[in-house]
């Protein structure tokens, strides 16, 4: 399709502008940019994965510096785990198909992404860092406590309750009937705030100990909560443009004092402290906000020109002022945003599967990393859904990704994999590390400048957390879970679950609570 004209200079921001609220999409397709050939520039070509489409098929002709790993033989293909629908992204046909699939299947486990500091252990609640000094020996953890949840109605089938947030010595967890806070050591409930109606996805991170959550019939309302005090700040109904009352497949993101909510057919942003509307889309605009991602910065996914139109990734400031914009290449669409600082975006090229990772700096693409074949044959096992990506960590300009599992060198049933470090600036691999025990390793996040990874229990070994040192490319034992808690651990592993690390406590939380009595109703378990 033809490109619309570039935006005029000195456009106003889009904070409140009575009697109408300004919005970044007031002009027809304001983010379109001239094609690269007209600017005398070319987009960087996709960078291949460090091993090619199949990392274990053949050895490179020349050794790659800094890797130091042997090549492994071909191994049998493992089954691909079904995934629940990815909210707020993809085309209409994909959304309908995913909605049907969500009724039929329960997805596989997912793993929390946590970003910490470079040198000191992080205790930031939204980043899940540990306060344990990096030099201490491994922890022998105990099973501290666990909580069960009220099941949703049979009409809802499953309740999405993936998110958890941390503040002080408390973990805050969504459940089908309420938002609840628990003491991380004793499990004592600090407070609860009822949430009526349907269960709705929440933001990936809190903002200054404040949350804004959707709730109600078809997620038609929002509530702001101070999670440090357990105090409701305000609540209101979401807008219903064109009379549409459903707010399904929504995304909500928090950054600073801004809460941005998007759903199929609409979007709105609020000031978290007061509930004042910051912006809403202009009627008749060619551009719509498909999704938001928050945390350290606020990033919007914008579609212009209707179904199948141009797509943009846009950085927003406080009040919604546009800071930069990047046009997604033709033939690709945004699958999810992996990180907002730095901005790392997952793309789906030519299908509904995550295929590439793009690093953006100031709205300019610096690198594009191919994930190889899609689905079960992807080179890396990153997983993106429900407004977030897991089993991946970004620290500075390095991204850490686990490779796909393959047969180990031990028993015939052993499965193992590695963690790869890639340079976001160049898109090239830096090094690869393999754990000492042949078990699949999954990324939890960053703590004290080191990668924290999880290995589930086996029939003869308890589950454990490892710490990977980027300087030496070696793993060390960080925490060993109790042998006596295998059944508790497996109760979460048998269904959708998330992994979190906070203040030397390891948490397992349910991603969904099912109406079926055949599946677990455990919501959260704490080890430490």
General description of the model:
It is built from three helices and 40 strands. With about 525 residues, it is mainly beta. It has a domain at about 50-200 and about 330-525. A five-stranded mixed β-sheet has the order 3-36-35-34-33, with no helix packed on it. Strand 22 and strand 23 (about 355-360) form a beta hairpin. The longest helix has 13 residues, at about 90-105. Keywords: Membrane, Transmembrane, Transmembrane helix. This is Outer membrane protein assembly factor BamB, contains PQQ-like beta-propeller repeat.
List the helices and strands and how they pair.
Elements lengths: L15 E2 L2 E2 L14 H4 L52 H13 L34 E2 L2 E6 L9 E3 L3 E4 L2 E5 L3 E6 L5 E6 L15 E6 L5 E6 L4 E7 L13 E5 L2 E6 L2 E6 L5 E3 L7 E7 L4 E7 L5 E7 L5 E6 L4 E9 L2 E7 L6 E6 L2 E7 L12 E3 L2 E3 L2 E3 L2 E5 L3 E2 L7 E2 L2 E5 L5 E5 L8 E6 L2 E6 L8 E6 L4 E7 L5 H8 L3 E6 L2 E6 L1 E3 L7 E6 L1
Parallel strand pairs: 3-36
Antiparallel strand pairs: 1-2, 4-40, 5-39, 6-7, 7-8, 8-9, 10-11, 11-12, 13-14, 14-15, 15-16, 17-18, 18-19, 19-20, 21-22, 22-23, 23-24, 25-26, 27-28, 28-31, 29-30, 31-32, 33-34, 34-35, 35-36, 37-38, 38-40
